[in-house]
Amino acid sequence: MEAFNVRICVVAACLFLASQATGYTMDDLCKQWSGTGYIGNPSNCRGWGYCKNQQTVKWGTCGDELVFNAQTGSCEYATTTPCSTSAVQTCSAIKSPIYVANLLNCTEYAHCDGQGKIAYGDCGVGGVFSESTTSCKWGPACPQDNICRFMPSNIFVGDPNKCGNYINCINGYGTSTACTESPSIYYNAATGKCQSTNPCTGGNTNSGDSQFTVGQISEEACNTEDFDAAEALTVDGETVDYKYVSDSETCYGYYYCAKAGALGYWNQCPTGTQFNSKLGKCVSPASFVCTHNRCGNVNSKFMAVEGCLSYTICSSGATASCPSTSKYYDEVNNICTNTIPKYTICSST
Ligand SMILES: *[C@@H]1O[C@H](CO)[C@@H](O)[C@H](O)[C@H]1NC(C)=O
């Protein structure tokens, strides 16, 4: 009985953490930005901060009936501007109908009727809502869980989840990107430039196993056998000569191979995705079975074990199970459930 309760608490605690709109503070944001200017406060949509030399040097709150718009860096009327931290707050003030993300549950979206009411819709199993396109997408990464939501538009910042990568923030969104101009393959958040020496000093654990660095060269990776076995790639409908070959050690790393026998250059999938060698693409980890450490390159505390009857606790590598009343672990929604989730990782035995 004791153990049973503990497991429920573990999952409940992780639900709580996962449901935070973001876990970032203004200091976390400023640390990633080499520039100077206003940012939004991730815990209060009326709040703002001012970054300089990678630190929050000033902060404050917009006046009554105003919210801070981080993309424009100004206080704007809540009757026309969504609150970046709460759908409920947006709907209570906004005067025209609008769809916004439910920041407490990325599977859901909220519809404000423009007259103070809120209604929720849902993207279905495995879906996440994207506020920028007001559409549902395949998860698991939540598009809104992005520091760009609180940063000005058209700037470059470091990726807080993957030191050495950068994000180009545009209108509140951006994806983690690696510097590719060899040898300058590391982004330095302090200078806002790519450089050849690694500026990252420990403390960055989300990328999981890190035996590889972006741009690392392998003489073996593109051997004829593996190259021929790799999926042919098409770009704009045309088959291209190069292929991506799995690194065979991580779930998220692959080698770029110009042709069979060429030098392989290691690269990694965007955060939240993993490399499916059968497709030659980075995809949702739940959509295929990777037999290496599935905790790599995802910001998840738990990842399902094939079949979804147990899950891996990513911090320790230990395996745990859901309570017998809801025995399946759904890694996309981070819940224990009594119906087997429809992801490939769950359906295979
Ligand atoms: C999120 O919303 C979906 C759809 O309404 C629901 O099935 C799911 O249980 C919710 N997840 C959490 C963590 O509350």
From TrEMBL:
This is Uncharacterized protein, isoform B. The gene is Dyak\GE22425. Residues 1-23 form the signal peptide. Gene3D superfamilies: Chitin binding domain. GO terms for cellular component: extracellular region. It comes from the Eukaryota. One of its GO terms (molecular function) is chitin binding. SMART domains: ChtBD2. It comes from Drosophila yakuba (Fruit fly). PROSITE patterns: CHIT_BIND_II (PS50940). Residues 27-85, 88-144, 145-202, 219-292 form the Chitin-binding type-2 domain. Keywords: Chitin-binding, Disulfide bond, Glycoprotein, Repeat, Signal. InterPro entries: Chitin-bd_dom, Chitin-bd_dom_sf, Chitin_bind-dev_reg.
